[in-house]
Amino acid sequence: MQYYSLNRQAPSVDFRAATLAGQAPDGGLYFPETIPRFSPQLLQSLRTLPKAELALQVMQPYVGTTIPAAELARICAETVDFSFPVVSVTEQIAALELFHGPTLAFKDVGARFMSRCLGYFSRQQTRAVTVLVATSGDTGGAVANGFLGVEGVEVVILYPAGKVSPVQEQQLTALGQNITALEVQGNFDDCQQLVKQAFTDAAVTSHLTLTSANSINVARWLPQQLYYLYASQQWPHPEPPVVAVPSGNFGNLCAGLLAYASGLPVSHFIAACNANDAVARYLRTGDFAARPAVATLSNAMDVGNPSNFGRILELFAQNHATISGLISGGTVTDAETSATIRRVHQQTGYLLDPHGAVAFHTLEAYLHTRPGQHGLFLETAHPVKFPEVVEPLIGQAIAVPPALHELMRQPKRSIALEPRYEALREYLLTR
Ligand SMILES: *Cc1c(COP(=O)(O)O)cnc(C)c1O
């Protein structure tokens, strides 16, 4: 499989090169040259295929010959080594829970797959790969955890001091091993700026093999289609589901669309957005306009200019009629998000996180006028990651899952960094 740049000003590359580079040299996103079809045998045996085997079959054509089959089988097995249950919430609606991984959010699968691929590719390099990443909270935890203990890969994470939640800070700083956390005395934009500058500094890039591990990397994007196959394996109704996806950068939804384009039956998709709804507007009107991001309760979706939107357009040859026939957009206010968390908890006992609540709300509205249909929404994070939003709404504390107890007890280890590029440069050049 070759990948071309959506800007079409860079050569096509294989999976290895696309993963190592992240973004094409012309600034474009990489996109697969062909969309593989799932074989009839795969679709027929879906219910009985073990998760890891299914992952291997789905990822194999994308990876091609860049990773030997036995190695890829091991990577797939480690990546999906936890559960993805479909849980019934109402008569019409089920949750696909994607928070059973080590950092309790869906980004674990992409981060684990990419980190292991990079680990494999770095064995062919003469020196370690250094992943340099800025985080506002959640992504950093998934990346750090994904790379923990992966040989040949060093991770340096910049995060804004005092601006991440206690659970998030532990996930960044308490791991040790090959993970270093730089605690920047500034905000997220400072962190992002410092990282960007390092990638353009020839002294740094010749001293270290830098890679970005950001969310547009094909090795993070592509394995997310597995969620939709795992949902199908468990789906109890004869007609395929309506699927609502809480969306920010649109990697997750776009991966679902890829699975659909490969032959997975899905009735309809809903792009569930908070106030940052440029794509929902496009679906309604045919016009796309990026806007500055606004802060909401579902903050992992606060993206004004979603990077994966270009991939959605490419997948359907820019055809607005096709795209808007398959995907509906929904815009949900913070007041609706809060009311949904409270009401669903009261009526069903199910506790939504703010991101899942946005998706639940759009799905409920869609199914309201379609009484015979059934749908599922992607519950992308555990509510315990957002206690300041959820606990006041339900009037009780959320129990910390056992998986976090151990981590919360570990000592925090971070290196303070002034928000000046010279400080980061000096740190990197002396590593
Ligand atoms: C990242 C994230 C999203 C948005 O996913 P995209 O693939 O960027 O659209 C939704 N919910 C949670 C909890 C997230 O961390």
TrEMBL record:
Keyword annotations from UniProtKB, A to Z: Amino-acid biosynthesis, Lyase, Pyridoxal phosphate, Threonine biosynthesis
Pfam families, A to Z: PALP, Thr_synth_N
UniProt-listed InterPro entries: Ser/Thr_deHydtase_PyrdxlP-BS (IPR000634), Thr_synth_N (IPR029144), Thr_synth_N_sf (IPR037158), Thr_synthase-like (IPR004450), Threonine_Synthase (IPR051166), TrpB-like_PALP (IPR001926), TrpB-like_PALP_sf (IPR036052)
The protein's required cofactors: pyridoxal 5'-phosphate
Transmembrane segments: none
Similarity field: Belongs to the threonine synthase family.
Catalytic activity: O-phospho-L-homoserine + H2O = L-threonine + phosphate
EC assignment: 4.2.3.1
Domain Threonine synthase N-terminal, chain residue ranges per copy: 2-79
Signal peptide: none
GO molecular function list: threonine synthase activity
Sequence ranges assigned to domain Tryptophan synthase beta chain-like PALP in this UniProt record: 96-363
Known pathway: Amino-acid biosynthesis; L-threonine biosynthesis; L-threonine from L-aspartate: step 5/5
Source domain of life: Bacteria
Species, as recorded: Hymenobacter nitidus
Protein name, UniProt field: Threonine synthase
Enzyme class: lyase
